[in-house]
Amino acid sequence: MRVPTAVITAGSLIGGWQIARRTGIRPLGGVVLAAGGVAAGREWARRTSPAVTGALAATYVGAFGLSHPLAKKIGSWPAVLVVSAVTAAASYLVADRRS
């Protein structure tokens, strides 16, 4: 059974942030983020077109980038949860629901 990419993206965004926060080693959080991106990207490539895979990858990376300024406005936890939910929803609607 394959893990839905919605779970991978949300889990790696939240998990990467928590690992970086709790250990104080930001690159370690980046490793989790990158691993999640690679795992999700492989599934997107298998399930969708290259254009859709690129759009979903841009959404994932953009969510990470957006979480930083958003955290200054609404707080860290809410920001990470919002971008994770949006990324997971996009992954589900575009890639996971079809499988």
From TrEMBL:
What sections of the protein cross the membrane? 51-71, 77-95
Keyword annotations from UniProtKB, A to Z: Membrane, Transmembrane, Transmembrane helix
Give the protein's recorded name: Uncharacterized protein
Which organism does this record belong to? Actinoplanes cyaneus
